[in-house]
Specification:
The radius of gyration is 60 Å and the shape is elongated. The protein has helices at about 1-25, 95-100, 125-145, 150-180, 180-195, 220, 240-255. The longest helix is centred in the middle third of the chain and has 31 residues, at about 150-180. With about 260 residues, it is mainly alpha-helical. Among the domains are: about 1-80, no CATH class; about 135-195. Mean pLDDT is about 75; it is low at about 30-35 and about 45-50.
């Protein structure tokens, strides 16, 4: 019987240690590699005598058990590593550390700007111009606010007038389209193409002046023999004319061109 009770006590101790370890992992992440001090589990003293009725009541422990709190001021980082780095205390000479942490800042002296005698800026004409423009803008806005409905009526009538002109033009085009006779148009075109103009007046009613090509050909105009050959070199200068043209160009360049 005593052996069974001792096993039960060991199981209770293991259960309390497991719960304590779970609460330890639920705490916020620690801040160093040093473990916080855990409360020492109190040993429960159990009497060896047992009641005759077979029921046994465990006595209350005399030492209070403090569970780890959620708000732990000492945060510990416990990362699983094979080799923990040793903690070394800082040396006695910390002047270099202080110089690095709080360096002395050399502040430059502040000098007030000098009172130089600058020429004054005369802006009276410019200020008058700005005021005149602002007043014109102000009056224009007031006039627009006052005659707002008048301007709306003007724009509305302007749009209606443009719409009426458009409808009128479309109606005239539709009337012309309905009155168009394609057969008559083709006959008039053929008749005008076959007509020989021998009247003194043009089709528009103006006086018809004959072109010079009606009375003479190009050969007669330039005094050339009549032929169907077109000389591509016509109009080009001869060697003698080329020399004269070159001399005239040089003379012009010497007299009038910039050097």
């Amino acid at each position: 019987m005593s052996r069974a009770i001792s096993r039960l006590v060991e199981a209770c101790n293991r259960l309390s240690i497991t719960q304590r370890s779970q609460m330890h992992y639920l705490r916020p992440p620690p801040a160093s590699s040093i473990l916080p001090p855990c409360p020492v589990p109190s040993t429960i003293i159990i009497e060896q005598r047992f009641p005759t009725n077979g029921s046994y009541h465990f006595p209350q422990p005399s030492v209070s058990i403090d569970l780890p709190s959620l708000e732990n001021p000492q945060q510990v980082y416990t990362f699983p590593t094979l080799h923990r780095s040793p903690m070394v205390a800082p040396g006695l000479d910390i002047t270099e550390i202080l110089e690095k942490l709080a360096p002395t800042v050399e502040k430059n002296s502040v000098i007030a700007p000098g009172n130089s005698n600058k020429a004054p800026m005369w802006l009276s004409p410019r200020l008058l111009t700005i005021r005149r423009k602002k007043m014109k803008k102000h009056k224009r806005r007031r006039r627009y606010d006052r005659d707002f409905f008048k301007y709306q009526k003007y724009h509305r009538e302007k749009k209606l007038k443009a719409e009426r002109e458009f409808q009128k033009r479309m109606k005239s085009l539709l009337t012309e389209l309905e009155a168009f006779d394609p057969e008559k148009y083709v006959k008039d075109t053929i008749r005008m193409a076959n007509k020989e103009w021998q009247d003194e007046l043009a089709p528009t009613g103006r006086k018809l002046y004959p072109h010079w090509s009606r009375f003479m050909s190009l050969e007669q105009l330039y005094g050339l023999p009549k032929s169907e050959y077109i000389d591509k070199r016509s109009g080009l200068p001869t060697p003698e004319e080329a020399e004269q043209i070159k001399a005239l160009k040089e003379k012009y360049a010497k007299l009038y061109r910039r050097k």
